[in-house]
Amino acid sequence: MLRSIRISRADLRPNLFDELPIHSCNAVHLKLASSDLGPPLLSFLSEATKYNVAVHATIPLHELQGAEDLCRQDALGHRFPQHLCPSQPQVQELWLAECQTISAFFPWASLEMAGLGFSGSPDFYPSICFCAACMYGYGATGLVLEQVARENMEEPTEHPHPSVNTLLLWRRSVQYGILRLIHEAVPSPLCLKTAATIRYTGDRSSLSFQEAQGLAATCLVSWTTADPQKSREERTRLESLPRPMPVYAELPYPSDWDDSMAAAFSGAVFSFSEGTIRTE
Ligand SMILES: [Zn+2]
Known about the structure:
single chain; alpha/beta; TIM Barrel
């Protein structure tokens, strides 16, 4: 069973590997960007190798920045500079280059890709992108979808318009295309990160575990709610989905850890590929 802690580049400490057994951890998920690659990281990785601890690289693709015309554009024409649109060929090239550079640095246990797909607001219609690349992808449905999104942003309705099916298909095909591109270009096993909410696993807005089969070696699901009832429902729903690869759950760090641990550790990952989730 994978039992990992998540740390960031700023949390690298020489005594980390002495502490791991205390928390029954056998792996580390290290969040980093290509700009972090250098000698201090190399010495950390050499310590990890000495202690026989697997290190997974977490690449926050959604935090990369780019030109404004590569960003999400809603139905009202507003741009969101913090959300690069994955339909844009230049964004795909940027993400691929980041994965290639990091993959070439060290034989990582896996490359965990966070934010590989469409980012948006929690509300569905305002999160739909209408940039030039997405409009091209929607084809003849684009103008209808844009009108529907505008109307829903002014007066939300509960029932999705049929044009939404085209959008969902486009989103999945874009995500699949980039995942395939990265899979073919890097030697590291890939881990696809997604969220437990139904928008990301189950409503066809992103790849299902089955659709990612053959490209992602593992999947990681993060929990976005602290509500125990909602969390139980999400767990039950996810456990019923076909999982052709190991799927891990990311949980908040145990609350009884002291402050320094809490600052250093942002998550714990436990396998539920055997049908159970370990919670502490
Ligand atoms: Zn777009």
